[in-house]
Structures are given as C-alpha cells and as structure tokens.
Specification:
259 residues, alpha/beta, three-stranded parallel β-sheet, 7 helices, globular
Amino acid sequence: MKYVPDSTADRQFESDNTVDRVGVDGLLSELDEYAVEQALQLKEKAGDDTTVTALCVGPEKAVDAVRKALQMGADSGVLVSDEAIAGSDYVATSLVLAKAIEKAGAEKPVDLVMCGMASTDASGSVIPAMLAERLDLPQVTFASVVETQGDQVRVKRDSDTATEVIGATMPLVMSVTDQTGEARYPSFKGIMAAKKKPLETWSLSDIGVDAGEVGLSVAWTEVQETSARPPRTQGEVVKDEDGSGATALTEFLVSKKFI
C-alpha cells in the first residue's frame, strides 16, 4: 500500500523537487483500498488460517495508512521507514518492498502479493510488475474480477478493445482495479480491534538493504523543475443580443481548436 498526500490538500514540493510527504496531510491511497478489500475477501473465503499483512513504505506518518488497513480487517501491519528511502524511484521502491515481503514471509511463505492498480499521486502502475520480477513470481495485473479455488486464481481484465480471462496458480503477484467492488469502511469494532494488532516498523538494515541502493541520488529519474499552477483566469461571456451568439461561440471554439 502507499501513503499519499491528500488530493484535496495544497500539495507542495521539497527544495530537491521531491513531493513533500511530511508537511502535508496524507492517507492510504484510495486505489490501494481496493487491494486491501480483495485480500480480505480472499481471507474470508479461505478460512482463519489465512492472514493478511498490510505493508507500506514511507515516512513515519505513513503508519496511519497501515492502521487504516488494520481497521478494515488486516491481521498485522508493517511500515518500512528510513530517511535514506526519501526520493526513491520505482526501481528502489520495488527493491525495498520485495525485501520486506521476503522478510515477512520468512516463517510462513507468502501466497499472494496484492497491489492496487496504481497510486493516486504518481499513477505509475509499474510496481506490481517490478515486484513479480524481483520475487521471481508470475504476475496477473489490472484484475477487475477475482475468483479463487484453493491455490487456483482466475481473473477478468478489461482493456479498451477486449476482455481477457486469465488463470494462474499461487504464489503470484496481483494488482486489482477500482472495478473489483467498493472497499469496506472500518467499523467501530474494527477500529478498536486494530489497536491490539501487531504493527512493526522496519528500517533498511532490518530488511538487508544498503542505503546506497535507494534514495534520490541513485534514482533513474529526476524532476528538474516545478512551478505553481497559474491562477484561473476569468472566462469569456458570449452574449446573443443581436443573434450573433452562435457565430461568436463557433469562432471561439475554432480558435481553441476544440472543433
């Protein structure tokens, strides 16, 4: 899961042109809530011996995103937080996540890595594929319908031109879209129960990642410059007092290349 700046808040950039994730309000990425929901539904179908672990990489405040997943019904949570991670690109982020998944599955192997289709701040959609490569697992992405029977998985994936039905066998990496069904709201019982669930914070050393492998200094991409959005200008009013309104409107649309 990803902890992202609230889209309704005034988002800012740091002096190094990275997104400010500390000085603004943040929350669990909405698209990742669908992944949490699907993981919980699979657990309910599989039985009590199945557990769901919510994993997030981010600043200390990102623990709020993990708590939200625990309140929804996840059994345990892990936050990987380390100052050296700041500014990491997709490559480094996938490395941290993969190592954390391996550590989480050291005692009990992980059957399914569930991801959202994208984050609401970057919309890259590449982390699931990178995780599959790093974990040496098959990937099934952009699932709009998920069905399971034991270790067998069947998903429906909708594209612009066709609908695909894909079958796979666990263990695997999966990403789901916002078409899989609404995510549940944490109940009062779930909020109270979440306070007693295990929630760990790991550093890079805990998962065996060297600080020199992550961060802005080794990122493959870099934001060169940022600028504030220009203020909204006043619109143009087209009057139709003498019957020329249609012509004036057409000329305006042509000038903006709308028609």
